[in-house]
Amino acid sequence: MRIKLTLNALDDPTVVPLNYNYLLSAAIYTTLRTASAEYSSWLHSVGYIGQDGKPLKLFTFSKLQTPKGIVENGNIIVRKDSQSYIHISSPMFDDFVQSLVVGLFVSKTLTIANRNLCARFLVTRVEMVKKPIFHPRTKFVCLSPFVVSSMREKDGVLTTHYLRPDDPNLSESIRKNLIRKYGLIHRSSLQDDRLTAELDQEYIARRGGITRISKLISIKEGTDEETKVYAIQSPLTLEGSSELMEIAYESGIGAKNSVGFGMLAMYQKNGQR
User: Fold this and answer.
1) Distance between terminal CA atoms of the chain?
2) 106 and 151 co-located in one domain
3) Beta-carbon neighbour count of residue 185 at 10 Å?
4) Secondary structure (3-state) at 117
5) How many domains would you assign to the chain?
6) 273 located within any domain
7) Residue 2, Cα to own-chain centre: how many angstroms?
8) Containing domain of residue 144, as a range?
9) Strand pairing of 137-142 and 149-154?
10) CA distance readout (Å), 161 to 147, 148, 224, 266
């Protein structure tokens, strides 16, 4: 299930750090806590455990859309009362989605804050987004960049390796990640587990090559726990199992979905979702 929030900036100016992924994720947990402190704490510290023993949070969110915002000195500047938008998605309706909606109606605000800045938004509208129909070959756009990673040994130590857009393992890594999410959500195996992911090469060429669709994004910026992740922003076509496409749509593709990576929307001919 996916919801769209319409937000009105409460301060003039309202200042949001460019690297707001972790801060927005924290704001979502705070909203969940308003509805259920127990669930919010469990999701943050434990999460849904798969057969491999590894946890997943099973939610994702889009970039903050600020049509009237401007970027200045590493921040997004939004004027008071101007509207911004965010999409939040999860397949866990009874747990995550209902708690989030209740929390939003109780708190009525969303606050994105770090040590230095506090951006306050009034939630003026909460909309349920109708799920699209997934065809055997479906093109998507990224509402947030996606991260695909694997663990590799370097100097005898396992380290995180981020896949580049031209990595030959990119498509298969996306498929395996979605199969894992499917098994955790449905507690069953797939009848059809075929899936390929193909990046939009025309888009990449227009942008100026793979380096122009790739970026390093800081998580927990300015803290002792700061890390950088390598993310990819490009339309892509998924071909194969519609069930895996639904998982991709509701849970996000790749890794680090719960800090705002991997949210997809159906591509439309006019270029809009």
Assistant:
1) 16
2) no
3) 19
4) coil
5) 2
6) no
7) 12
8) 137-266
9) unpaired
10) 10, 9, 21, 29
- Where among 111, 129, 147 does a domain terminate? 129
Q: At residue 166, what is the residue type?
A: D
Distances (CA, A) of 175 to 170, 244, 248, 272: 9, 8, 9, 25
Give the whole-angstrom CA distance, residue 115 versus residue 164.
33
The residue behind tokens 């409460």 is: 10
Q: What's the rounded mean pLDDT across residues 201-208?
A: 97
- Look at residue 14 and give its three-state secondary structure: strand
The reply to whether 115 and 146 lie within a common domain is no
Same-domain check for residues 64 and 41: yes
pLDDT tens digits for range 24-56: 999 999 999 999 999 999 999 999 998 888 999
Angle between helices 37-45 and 21-35 (to 10 degrees): 140
Strand, helix or coil for residue 116: coil
Separation CA 31–CA 22 (nearest Å): 14
Residue with tokens 């939610």: 59
The packing angle between helices 21-35 and 98-107, to 10°, is 90
Question: Which residues partner with 122 through β-bridges?
Answer: 8, 109
Q: What is the DSSP letter of 39?
A: H
Q: What is the CATH number of the domain that holds 179?
A: 3.30.70.1900
Last residue of a domain, one of 129, 158, 175: 129
Q: What is the pLDDT of residues 227-239, one digit of tens each?
A: 999 999 999 999 9
11-26 burial code (b ≥16 CB/10 A, e <16): eebbbbbebbbbbbbb
Q: Name the 3-class secondary structure at 262.
A: coil
Residue 113 belongs to domain with CATH number = 3.30.70.1890
